[in-house]
């Protein structure tokens, strides 16, 4: 009950949202999926090219600092991962690299479908296929729309959901939010 009140009030603990669910990572099959760190704006410009960061919405200084702080928080608590799977969008790849948690591996299944919502089901199935049956512990960096489709839950920039693979998507076990 106290935890729900704290969550509802949004109380902060020095630089970290008080209601962080670090213990959820100890659950069998648990891993992390994160919305990229702060990248001001919404969507991408009309001339977007996945191979050219100058055409994309990118992390700002706060986003770069946030990504580094998130990685540091996980390392400080002894949480390790085998791989960081990431969308090919520069804001996700940069977040994944700045986390400095494990080798970074691009995976198209986690690319955004924000500008082509017709791809939602295809992308979500591909993401679940990429996650099912893994014998390692991934950390995933993706986008708001992808995470919402996989979990049924919205996320803020830089929010990490602790999840595990379930029948119809990802079961949310907890959340970690490092104050930007």
Task: Describe the SSE topology.
Elements: H1 2-9, E1 12-13, E2 16-17, E3 31-35, H2 61-76, E4 83-86, H3 90-99, E5 104-106, H4 120-131, E6 138-142, H5 144-151, E7 160-165, E8 170-176
Helix pairs in contact: 2-3, 4-5
Flag low-confidence runs. Answer: 1-18
Order of helices and strands: HEEEHEHEHEHEE
Structure classification: alpha/beta
Q: Rg, please?
A: 15 Å
Output mean pLDDT.
Answer: 88
Shape: globular
Number of strands: 8
CATH architecture: 3-Layer(aba) Sandwich
Q: CATH homologous superfamily - what is it?
A: Phosphoglycerate mutase-like
CATH class: Alpha Beta
CATH topology: Rossmann fold
**Gap from first CA to last CA:** 27 Å
Largest sheet: 6 strands, mixed
Summarize the structure.
This protein has 180 residues and is of the alpha/beta class. The chain has one domain (13-176): Phosphoglycerate mutase-like (Rossmann fold). Helix content is 30%, strand content 19%.
């Amino acid at each position: 009950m106290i935890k729900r009140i704290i969550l509802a009030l949004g109380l902060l603990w020095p630089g970290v949202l008080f209601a962080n669910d670090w213990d959820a990572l100890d659950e069998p099959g648990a891993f992390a999926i994160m919305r990229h760190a702060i990248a001001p704006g919404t969507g991408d410009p009309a001339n977007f090219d996945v191979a050219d960061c100058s055409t994309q919405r990118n992390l700002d200084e706060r986003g770069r600092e946030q990504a580094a702080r998130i990685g540091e928080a996980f390392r400080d608590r002894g949480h390790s991962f085998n791989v960081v799977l990431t969308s090919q969008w520069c804001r996700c790849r940069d977040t994944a690299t700045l986390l400095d948690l494990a080798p970074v591996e691009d995976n198209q299944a986690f690319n955004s479908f924000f500008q082509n919502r017709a791809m939602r089901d295809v992308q979500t199935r591909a993401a679940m296929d990429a996650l099912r049956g893994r014998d390692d512990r991934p950390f995933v960096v993706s986008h708001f729309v992808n995470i919402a489709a996989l979990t049924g839950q919205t996320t803020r920039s830089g929010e990490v959901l602790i999840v595990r693979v379930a029948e119809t998507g990802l079961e949310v076990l907890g959340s970690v939010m490092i104050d930007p």
